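Explain this fold:

***
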Amino acid sequence: MVVISQVNIQQKKSFVTKYQDYLGEFVYGGIDGSVTTFAVVAGAVGAGLGSSVILILGFANLLADGFAMAVGSYLSTKAERENYQKQRDDQLQAVQNWPVREREKLRQLYLQKGFRGPLLDQVVDVIASQPEQWLDTKMKDELEMIGEGKSPIATGAVTYLSFILVGLIPLVLYVYDYYFKFTGNLFLYTCVLTSLGFLLIGFLKTYINQTSRFKGMLETLILGAIAASVAYFVGDWLEHIITG
């Protein structure tokens, strides 16, 4: 029973760790989604556009910009994996073609780490006898490269999903208003709702960066507010110029 329990705990940890790897993509996709969509809404409000136009612009930005960001995330992760594999293949060829030279490089590496005498010889012998471990050592300690374990497809999908989910927040009340007519200051309540979204994303960001929660949440809120303010006043300025 104890063994089964330990296995179950380990499986749960692996499950959690697996999805924690993609939390960064979720956070930054959400930040971009909420900021850019809210900026579109603020700019449209500043220009005096109606709710229907705001919805058109907001959803166009949400789907198109989110897809572009997801593609960029996918290509970036894919390129990192391909580059790592290419370098690993090159190191494998070096080990196979020049084993004496590569073994001496391994020896010098652990000599710099402080290993001496018989212990140094033993460490070199053990690592050199295991090709995969040898390659891992070369990649990490010689090239300072660590393999990218995340799936490019999953990375892009998480980015797109978070962009849409969090980016929908500034549009929720406008969708409601379109169908049921919202009573109250629509833009003001949208600002409040979006601010809560900024705070949530800021909180998740501090979990990734291991920084102060208050600082991270405040920073995200301020940056989102600045982006929205710029969009609002630019929209208002252009509306006055165009309409005279």
In short: The chain has two domains: 60-165, 168-244. Residues 1-16 have pLDDT under 50 and may be disordered. The chain has ten helices and no strands. Residues 67 and 160 are 6 Å apart (CA to CA).
